[in-house]
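Table S2 (text version). Query chain:
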Amino acid sequence: MANYSEMYHILFNKITDIIEELQDIQRQTEEMYLQCQKHETIALQVYNINQSKHVGDTVKNTEKRPLR
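Corresponding structure-token output:
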């Protein structure tokens, strides 16, 4: 008969270890970012396709307004 309690504990412990490892890696990469000498901010423009006008079978954006 399977020992479900033991199987659960093994699985739980392994998942917990992996989550902690991922959190450590995230902290490390965040620290690398913060220590970066050059911070560049890139503003991305997102356009709503519903604000486009159809021309034939193609869609042509006549006004590009960022989504809010």
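Notes on Table S2: Residues 52-61 have pLDDT under 50 and may be disordered. The radius of gyration is 25 Å.
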